[in-house]
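Continuing the batch. This is chain 6 of the set; chains 1 through 5 are on the previous pages. Same settings as before, nothing changed between runs. Recording input and output for traceability.
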Amino acid sequence: MSEKMPQSGGVWDWPNQQTVREDASGPGVDTTPGAATEAEDEFEEPTVEEMTKAQLLDYAAEHDIETVDESMTKAEIRQAILDAEA
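Output for chain 6:
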């Protein structure tokens, strides 16, 4: 954390700011209850159409799709996954 030393010799965590919150957190600290869990819940795994080639290869390995290998193009891997899941 970057701390600044004023000429008076004291240490200020939040320059020119006073703590005004009940929990004594500084102005740069998010104290909204559940804020961290809300952001984690918003993450969705990309669809097969949105995945990179590496993600497609990992997805195929995780789902035991043996017709996929690294020499295939992204379109071929995508089609093999869709065919295997159909």
